[in-house]
Amino acid sequence: MVWRNSQRFRRSWRSYSSLILSERTLGLDRKTEEWKTHLIDKVDKILTNHYHNGVKVKTLKLDIGPCRDIKASYLDRWLRIIKPGIQEFSLLLPLVVNKIYSFPCSVLSNEAAASSIQSLSLFGCAFHPTSILGRLRRLKSLSLRYVHVTEDGLGHLLSKSSALEWLEIEACSGIICLKIPCTLQQLKFLSVQKCEMVKVVEIDAPRLCSFRYCGTPVIYVRNSSQLKNVDISPVNLSGILSYARFSLPSIAQNVESLTLLAGRIENANTPMLPSKLPHLKNLKISLVKPWSSPNYDVFSLVSFLDASPALESFVLRVEQDAMMHDPVVGDDTEYRRQNLECRNNSLRKVMITGFCSAKSLVELTVHILERTHSLERFTLDITYGYDRRTCNIAKFPIARMIGQCWSLSKRALEEAHRAVETADRYIKGRVPSSVQFEVLGPCPRCHIGK
């Protein structure tokens, strides 16, 4: 019976040209003690049969992440199936192993095989391309995550990938200066995340539209005329807002959508340079809990608004404990800063999540309300976006599924009520009648009586 089941299993996979092999697709049960061995055995049988039967594989996705003891000899044998006609290849290996597997460059040395592949994704291995690498004429998507690759190796790879449109580099060691050459004429999306060794990023891709970066913010862009979407979050969360004030107008003068993540204390008095972001339409800034005392002057973000005459949407996300919460005291004149003449005539929608009683946050809110004649909607979400499961902003799918809001600590709930009081006392009276104003406080169903 076992032999018949094995024969039936091999026949069922024998003619497939698209192979997505993982514990899930193979229907393995983790409750059994030997499921990892069964995973390797099944993958080995499928790929061996395909290789010997001459079946052309167009898509091959191997997820061997759970198998820490996988032998390199198995992987070498499986990769023989990469032949001319392959269009998509993905390899996911375990991160914790005794010896990192080195993806053989020879697999892509065959010009016919190299020129047919359109998507390549590697996770958890080493990859050292050399001059023997074939020309990847049709490669449009490249993802390297947790891959050890040198600057020279990556240079060889990119020099052979002139059709590349989408490039993702995440947690890759061995690169200090990341260079995106001008030969990548078709590159539209670039993501560089968690590459701690990278100190400088040099970009010379004339058609780059979107750039996502998490690392040390030293960026040079030679041709940024098409760069419309920028997302920057530094590794140590230090100085990103000051860096953005000074550098963005020069490296992304045509940016339309900008997302920034900041956390450590920054120089709140750093002014915006005379150069502006004339095309910026959507701005999102997130403030996370800092390493030291949270005393950031949020009102200084006005400089971004003043430098963005075309801005239409502004979202500020303030995480819990990102700011000092001031008591609600004094009259409303204490929450208005004087001698600010700049006005914005394009801003239509503003949302602040994590609104609290911090004085500078109230001052920022008042400033926007009083100096933005084009404003249509202003939303203050008191509960960090964890709440209001029926609302259309900052929702958590898990909360929707279980039918209740994300829980709030007693201290957070007390601050939420204090923030509602602040909004009622110092902000509501300043809202023009033409503006749709909403305060999202604690959920009366989930947080009542707490």
Describe this structure in words.
The strands form two sheets. The protein has a 16-stranded parallel sheet that branches. The protein is 24% helix and 21% strand. The model is unreliable at 387-402 (pLDDT under 50). The longest helix has 19 residues, at 35-53. The chain is elongated and about 80 Å long. It has a domain at 231-332 and 341-387 and 405-449. With 450 residues, the protein is α/β, with parallel strands linked by helices.
What layout of secondary structure does this protein have?
Layout: H1 2-13, E1 18-21, H2 35-53, E2 59-63, H3 72-78, E3 88-92, E4 102-103, H4 111-116, E5 119-127, E6 141-148, H5 151-159, E7 166-170, E8 177-180, E9 189-193, E10 200-203, E11 210-214, E12 219-221, E13 229-232, H6 240-251, E14 257-262, E15 282-287, H7 302-306, E16 313-318, E17 349-353, H8 359-371, E18 377-381, H9 397-402, H10 410-426, E19 436-440
Parallel strand pairs: 1-2, 2-3, 3-5, 4-5, 5-6, 6-7, 7-9, 8-10, 9-11, 10-12, 11-13, 13-14, 14-15, 15-16, 16-17, 17-18, 18-19
Strand content: 15-25%
CA-atom Rg in angstroms: 27 Å
- Overall average residue pLDDT: 82
Query: Between the first and last Cα atoms, what is the distance in angstroms?
Result: 61 Å
Largest sheet: 16 strands, parallel
Determine the number of helices (DSSP H or I, runs of at least 4 residues): 10
Helices and strands, in N-to-C order? HEHEHEEHEEHEEEEEEEHEEHEEHEHHE
Overall 3D geometry? elongated
Number of strands: 19
Alpha-beta content class: alpha/beta
Q: State the share of residues found in helices, binned by percent.
A: 10-25%
Spans with pLDDT under 50 lasting ≥5 residues? 387-402
